[in-house]
Structure formats: C-alpha cells, structure tokens
Amino acid sequence: MTSDKQRKTEARALAAAEGISYTAALRRTAVAGDAVADAVRRALAEDRAEDDITTRWSVPDGTRAHARVVARQDGVIAGTAIPAEVYRQLGSDVVVTAHVQDGDRVRTGQDLLTLAGPAREIITGERTALNFLQRMSGIATTAAAFAEAVSGLPARILDTRKTAPGLRALDKAAVAAGGVSNHRLDLAAMVLLKENHIAAAGGVAAAIAAVHACNTQGIAVEVEVESTAQAIEALRAGVEWIMLDNMSVEDMRYIVTLRGPEGPRLEASGSITLDTVRAVAETGVDAISVGSITHSAPAFDLSLLLTPTAAPGGVPPARVG
Questions:
Q1: What pathway annotation does it carry (predicted)?
Q2: Which domains does the chain have, with CATH numbers?
Q3: Has 194 been annotated as catalytic?
Q4: Which is the catalytic residue, given 12, 64, 127, 278?
Q5: pLDDT tens digits, 121-163
Q6: 162-189, pLDDT tens digit by residue?
Q7: How distant, in Å, are the alpha carbons of 138, 213, 237 from that of 207?
C-alpha cells in the first residue's frame, strides 16, 4: 500500500514517538496483506456480490469491457492496491492496472486505474472498490492538507485511534500516504493516560505512579492534561509525553517554556482545525494529533467509467443511433 521508503520513514518516527524498537515499528507501519483481504471479504459479503441480480439480468453474459477510474478532484490518492484484491476475491479475470501509487498527488480528470475484463464482474465490484478508494484517498488528502499547513515548522501531525471500526489498518495507511505520522495503532502500543483513567486512578500523579509501578518493560508513557496545573503535576511525575488537551495557545506556549530542553515531548490535541493548526504548531509543541483526519475526512470524488469492447461471442458492441 505504501512504498518501502514511506514505511521506513514512518517507522523511524513511530519508534521515536513511542519508545519502541525500529523493527517493531516497521512491522506496525506496514499494512498487513491479511488486513486488506479481510476488509475486502467483509465488504463483498455485505454487498452480497455473489447475487448481483441487477447486473446478471441486464448485462449479457460474455460481454467484455474496458473501464477507467477517474479523479473528479485534486488530491492525494491512497488504496490503489485494493481494487485488484476486490476482483481477485470475486474470482474474475478482470485485469486491474494502477497508474498511480499511494501518496501520489493527482489532478481532476486524471486516470487513476484502468480495468479490462468481463463487464458483469467489473460492474459488480465497482462500488466496493470505489468505496475503499474514496475513503482512503479522502483521508490521505485531508492528512496532506494538515501536513502542508505546518510546513516549515518542527511539529509533526499525528493521527488518532478515531478510525472506522474494522478498518484501522487501512485508515492509518491512508494517513501515512498523506504524509502524516501514525500515533499508536492500538491499546497495547503505549501507555496513554486519558481523563477517565486519571479520574479513576485518583489524579494525574496517582495514575502515573501506578503505571510506573507496573511498567517493567520501559514502555513510553503519555498523559493527557487539561490545565497548566495538571501539566506541572505531570512534569514533576515524569513521563515521556504530555498531551495538552483543548488548551489555549497561550497556555501551550507557557508549558513549552516550563518543560525545558530535557523535558518530555508535548502533544497538542482537541478540536484542532486547518485554520488553527499552524498557530498551535508555532507554540513549540512537538506534535499535534488530529482526530478529524480519519473520523471526518470527506470522501474523495472519483468515478468509474465503463465502455463495452465486445459483445458475447467476441462481436464488437452495436452502435446505437
């Protein structure tokens, strides 16, 4: 889904962010083939692709066709390997050729993929293939916009676990295609103490102390704080990361001065938009997590356009009119 170079860059960033080995990070940044296959299997089953009555009743068996997947907007593409998996699972002999790679910038009207094969199979798999492409490319395009908004500043944009259920690996691959770093993949990836952990544990210091008592593996610890007082408490308790949640830029800037050159890394979070992200980055925080990249990215606009090339028996399609 992503190139070796992209995966290695993301793995180095992930290893630094979460205090894990480069090898472990590299394994996590690659989109497992079984995750793609499983997502496609579930999508085809949901669509009852084996019983596409509309196509079976309207399109003559044996009709051959050529199709193009065309971009209807500018943006960043992701999910280019998925259409081939869709048609593989349909058991068809549709040939899918990708003309772009994940992470490529595309223009309106550009051909992204071409397909050739039985018209029935192309049409049956169309919506499933496009759903994945539209979601992933929408995420990649949104991620790229956030990355561009902080261009020239050291702060990194991070994604979150606010992904579509069952599609996290694909959502995070799309984020990486857009040039944004993946934060933790799952609950076992690092310790991240959020407001409810803190409330249940009895406060910031108590939560951190409890984690330190159990953390024999040296896993990176991050704690979410909502005030300068909580941030000072976290600085004193000692963690690798502090998340500054829904704070003003003035408070963020103040906490940056408090942490000093050897202090923990600081992550800003909470309702950050394209209009506000650069001001947040200018406070001096190390990272900015943006949930909307995955939970609210608009679908990428694209179309599949089909042209019959041969009727049953190899006869060219009849002209109409």
A1: Cofactor biosynthesis; NAD(+) biosynthesis; nicotinate D-ribonucleotide from quinolinate: step 1/1
A2: 4-139+299-310 (3.90.1170.20), 147-295 (3.20.20.70)
A3: yes
A4: 127
A5: 999 999 999 999 999 999 999 999 999 999 999 999 999 999 9
A6: 999 999 999 999 999 999 999 988 998 8
A7: 37, 10, 10
